[in-house]
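Hi support team,

I'm opening this ticket because the web form for multi-chain structure prediction keeps timing out on my end. I have pasted the exact lines I submitted so you can reproduce it. The total is 1359 residues across four entries, so I didn't expect it to be a heavy job. Is there a limit I'm missing, or should I split the entries? Thanks in advance, R.K.
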Amino acid sequence: MSDTPKKPNKQMEASRRSVLMGGTALAASLFVPKFLRAADYPTAAVNTTGLAVTDDEVTIGILHSITGTMSISETGSVQAEKLAIEQINAQGGILGRKIKYIQEDGASDWPTFAEKAKKLLVNDKVASVMGCWTSASRKAVLPVFEQYNGFLYYPTFYEGLEQSPNVIYTGQEATQQIIAGLNWVAETKGAKSFYLLGSDYIWPRTSNKIARKHIEKLGLKVVGEEYYPLGHTQFNSVINKIRLKKPDVIYAIVVGGSNVAFYKQLKAAGIDMTKEKPLLLTISVTEDEIRGIGGENIVGAYACMKYFQSLDNPNNIAFVEEFKKMWGDEIVIGDVTQAAYLGPWLWKAAVEKAGSFDIDKVRAASPGIELTTAPEGYVKVHENHHLWSKTRVGHAKLDGQYEVVFETAELVEPDPFPKGYQ
Amino acid sequence: MFLNKNRFFSNTDLIGFALLALLIFVMLPVGLDVFRLNLFGKYLTYAFVAIGLVLCWGAGGILSLGQGVFFGLGGYCMAMFLKLEASSPEATKIQSTPGIPDFMDWNQIAEIPFWWQPFHSLTFSLVAVIIIPVIFAFIIGVAMFRRRVGGVYFAIITQAIAAILTILIIGQQGYTGGVNGITDLRTLKGWDIRTDDAKVILYFVNGGLLFACLFIAQIIRKSKLGRILIAMRDQEDRVRFSGYDVANFKIFVFCAGAAFAAVGGAMFTLQVGFMSPSFVGIVPSIEMVIFCAVGGRLSIIGAVYGALLVNLAKTTFSELFPELWLLGLGGLFIAVVLAFPNGLAGIYKDYVEPRIALIFKRKMHIDEDVSKYDPLEAAAD
Amino acid sequence: MFADYSMGELGAIFAMQGFAGLILFSVFVLMALGLAIIFGQMGVINMAHGEFMILGAYVTYLTSNLFSEYMPALFSMYFFLAMILAFIVAGALGMFVEWALIRHLYKRPLDTLLATWGLSLIMQQIYRSVFGAREVGVTIPEWMMGSLPLTDTIEIPINGIFVMVLATGISIAVYIMMFRSSWGKQVRAVTQNRVMAGAVGINTERTDRLTFGIGCGVAGVAGSAFTMIGSTGPTAGQLYIVDTFLVVVFGGAASLLGTIASAFSISQAQSIMEFFLSGSMAKVLTLLTVVGILMLRPQGLFALKLRK
Amino acid sequence: MNARPDFLLTVENLTVSFDGFKAVDGLSFYVEQNECRVIIGPNGAGKTTVLDLICGRTKATSGKVEFKNQELLKMREDQIVHAGVGRKFQTPTVYEDLTVFENLEISYPKGHGVFGALTFRRDDAVISRIDEIAATVFLEELLEEKAAYLSHGQKQWLEIGMLLIQDPELLMLDEPVAGMSVAERKKTAELLNRIIQDRSVIVIEHDMKFVEDIATRVTVLHQGKVLSEGSMAHVQADPKVIEVYLGH
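Hello R.K., no limit was hit. The queue was backed up. Here is the completed structure from your submission:
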């Protein structure tokens, strides 16, 4: 596969009209699009499979961890999904029906996720589910969704290697997040050598594998690769190893509590990231994580993702304003939060395109769905259920926000099974 | 009076067993839909661990904070078999190397490692479910009990072992599936374990195995070995000077506990459809101890109720009051330790049994007279 | 792996790596001292030890907010006050917990393990309700976050030096308290023979409470110091618990000197292995070695041979 | 000094040190068949430690303990018991959660392996033996009572019963009458007199009246060494003994 973005294909162009209806959501206060009345879509016609759809309501599920260690990360996603649902309802809902949600707590426990997924699908007959955050929770619910033919919108950037007919992946798969960033750092910063570092689990390992292949393809060098157990808090040894290897770039995919320890110790060890010697590039620190790390400890680092809160476009400015209105001024919005926000909107667009809530029809309608009003800008759904989206590089500032220093010119094609990177 | 002739079951025990059987085999299956029944099936897999802990901890005084290790090993052995079956070349044709488990493919492992090979065989896998954890427990037991490590030290070392195993499983993701675990298990010898019918059948198999374990545990407890365990817990030196090699008994009961936990783990994998390191580590291991403590650390039947109750409370409370759940669970730990050291079984014995006794005063009186001479009568047959 | 480097560079790296080992050593000592007092002297297994540390961290967080709000001029010094407050708050809570919970369980050491685990869950939930589920960012005075260039190539992190000084200081303070003060004598008397100690007029209840409180207070100070190097969140305390217990047990529970020796050997082993192996494997190997040695020598490194 | 084979127990040069402190220091003594040896000595003389060393509870630093020409120092506690050495502790040590019957049953010399214990059956031989022993130690009425409910003296008897049921060739009793009422003491003396008839016994005791009643020979320990040895009259006359022990 190539890392240069591709133009949308013909087939997708054809479906643009239907999506514009969904996409105008954020401008709702300005003008209301063609109002879809429930009467035009009799329940018997739009719901042939016994989902929880009535004449004026449709029920969906929200499935994230409210308790346990993962609640830290998943709270933002829940907030974003609720905001999107509220906005959709304010516009009149979907096919004239208000969205009602049932929220379940996955409790950071994977069987609980599977249980609750099953409850949502079997007992509550929800029309779709916004949910999951970690790969482990997604892997746990996946068989449930496939068995009971549910439909999941999954928000997190993740390692790829998956393409389920019952999931729409609204975050980036690994190549989308990694390749453009590496190209950028090689071209504009002249980086020649990389030190790969990560927490020890599947996402950092898979991501670093792709990164290594790409670095080697570019004719550059990986001088070290290390993994530390989740929750590890002592990084002085690895910092010394980094000093010894003198890489141009530290490519860090450290997560959770380890993150805080790593950046604090890096700073205390005298590695000043603003000097960019070495430069630090991460794909795991969103604005959310910086709140725990402290802006002063990470200033000068670069992050590669598709969304930053500071993105300067009308969609995003409206989104950030609405988000803060609903959840308070203190809140920060990270990449995953934005991706979670896309879920309900993408589903709405797909349902309206299909003219039905039936899962099979929504699935068939999904590829080619476009959103022009996404906070991150224009996105669309690929045949492989991932999103075409831009990749951006942000530069961490003292106040905990990123300044966008680079974005790909075109949308990057999602490629969950990248040939040549496995 | 026939019942009294059985030296392994007193009347109260029999009533307890019968009530539990009624609950598990009649009331739950009749009263619950398949989804809820499957949930209870999952809770019951923890009961296996709790029964093992009653033997080790309640009777033997050995507190293991690493039962998750055995639960996990049993579960992983089962999962490896199921995963191999689910990874037929047809089912995995999109992989770069079809015919191997998906996570191996993602980690550039092109062929199934040698130690996975035997798990193609169901017989081997079923044997391994029990044997591997037992061998592991045996090694730990020999190393620790021969050197007379006990009490707190044993608890902390088993806890460290649970931590080590978790890090290892997560770190070796090419061979173990890493933090995601071994997922997407489908069939057992061609039989789809994900259908509703299969779940009901698995529930009953699980219940049957649970009763098998209960019977074994009861026999251990009521044999002289059970009394030696209690004697050992209270006066280890005296047992030694009565001519027993105390370490052997500890090793035995620790291995038995490991075997029970492993069966639970394997049934967990079958019913839930995957296995992951989050059931191996420190937190699940300590939770398993609380199941046992809530049920009553001296009562094997209590342990089953404990596992059911705590898990049910966990599901219900975490649905209704997610904020309060941890407070509730924490409070439960403290309450059980401070106020009800013998858990549900103790409450039953102290408050419920006397009332029942009042109602059936005369009948119980007769029974007591009989049981008083139980040993002699038992010997007479 | 060293072929491409000059001797000077290698020397500098090894010096810094040695220092990294010493920092890890100090971290372990700080983590373990409080527990060594509680577990070693009283035989109580305090599974909430990590939560007491995090309490210290949150106190530090609050103090830093207070200073930046009302006394920005003194901000660079707030850390010292924060540590004292952390000691007092964690110690006071510790004494309360001893009174409410622990004193009922002295005869059942394994039960204290369960009860304090329950306590740790409750404390985690309270932190979550009060401070939010997310980690809080504790702002550390700028002077503590830099590094000290010893030579052109050797740089020593100041927070590392701070942790080392603190670890030394607290070790000495604990030593003096245990072996030079009358309180220490009372603690040791109570440990060795509770009944007899009571009979000669030692208020054993008060001694227990104070001992537990001081152990928790030391944990609070450690937690306060760890805001410089780690995260402060509701569940961060659990990250420390396995390491902490292993250090104490490995040292031979009743011996403070043993705790320090074991912190030293474990930290050096881990630090050296981390340098030559990948992080996860280093951790696994360190833990395995410790468990292995404990199996061979269950009484730990420093244990008196006692006449039974 | 070669061990004479006709001694039941040979202790030679037995030494144990705890961090430099020698609790037992080069101790040697010999016990003959059917002898009742009483060990006396002031507190801290190492009396209990000697018993601990013989029965394997404490590991010796150096020396030799031979029982029927078997070296005991290399054996585990349970092996020593099976060799024929029984030990009663200073404080009564019984299984409080079990009944008197069960206490005795556990000590019954059968089914001592794990699987033996699992398949152990309470047959007639077991029951009649337990009844017999219970009668010997005055507990025949209390067989179904939990041991926790026994009086202090009854617990002492129960522990003695637990030893008797093993029928050891060498019985070691650590202060068997300590803490007993006068009546119990009398009964115990009677009991001991009966049970020492056909076996060798080592007793630690402070009560001189009692010692005179039962002792064949007396060994006086002082600071881990033998101070004097011989008949009761002999040691009572020994000036060294008078000085350290009996004199004050």
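A quick check on our side: Residues 16-172+310-389 of chain A form a domain with the Rossmann fold fold (CATH 3.40.50.2300). Let us know if the file doesn't open in your viewer.
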